[in-house]
Amino acid sequence: MSESGLVVVDKAGGMTSHDVVSRVRRLAGTRKVGHAGTLDPMATGVLVLGVNRATRLLGHLMLTEKAYDATIRLGVATSTDDAEGEVTATVATDGLDEVQVRAAAAEFVGDLLQVPTTVSAIKVDGKRAYQRARDGEQVELKARPVTVHELVVHAVRGDELDVSVRCSSGTYIRAIARDLGARLGVGGHLTSLRRTAVGPYALADARTLDELGDEFAMMPIAAAARAAFVSVDLDERQAGDVRVGRAIDVDLAGLSAVFAPDGEFLALYEPKDGRARPVAVFTG
């Protein structure tokens, strides 16, 4: 298969993101498959994969916002901040009421400094944090700026709460569970996580691996680019300049996908020094 595009997978629980990539490589008949941001094995939901030339879109898609549905359990802290870790502390939650829980959750909306979970894929001196933790090393990660655009508490059921989160890339929902529990003085961890969207790609666009095995479906690279970026249609002369990576005189509001008159996706361009200049060219 020589076509390029995106495959939006509804990942099942218990699989790594690499497991999904391996399966899609077989289905697509190409080794050139990558993903835009991992999902933990425990998590389910939207995993965006690029095939062939579309793998070069993935780095730009990783910067976009994401949305999740999650369940948080209060009163129990774990070594991984989720249900797969060892219990490190248990505290009674009898003293909490729903008003307290909702008020504390509201404090996690906005621009935050978040310490990533210890078992994250962040590299520390060239080695993944989760690998250092598995090797018994003490891992201390620095707080990083993240943005939580929205955190909606749908239900509080005793010591469990169901939430939806819309956030910037790089936000750890496990860390929100941990920090919310700490804020309430009882500890907490994530018991389920389902990613419902990555940028414009949502569960409605996603297919399970079984469904893809029955009928392999890929979003063409031009449609994927139009969905994710501001689109600009060029004339033939401009398109010719773009094909060889030249700057062009087009007003752009920011990073934009530019297209030939026949609809072919050519490149990502951005405004710089008064002209539109290439970020990544996808032709040739």
TrEMBL record:
Q: Please give the name of this protein.
A: tRNA pseudouridine synthase B
Gene behind the chain: truB
Q: Which CDD domains match?
A: PseudoU_synth_EcTruB (cd02573)
Gene3D superfamilies referenced in this protein's UniProt entry, alphabetically: Pseudouridine synthase, PUA domain
Q: Record keywords: Isomerase included?
A: yes
Keywords annotated in UniProt: Isomerase, tRNA processing
Residues of the active site:
D40
**Could you confirm whether the keyword Isomerase appears in this record?**
yes
**In the record, what terms sit under GO molecular function?**
RNA binding; tRNA pseudouridine(55) synthase activity
What are the residue boundaries of the tRNA pseudouridine synthase II TruB subfamily 2 C-terminal domain, all occurrences included?
A: 229-282
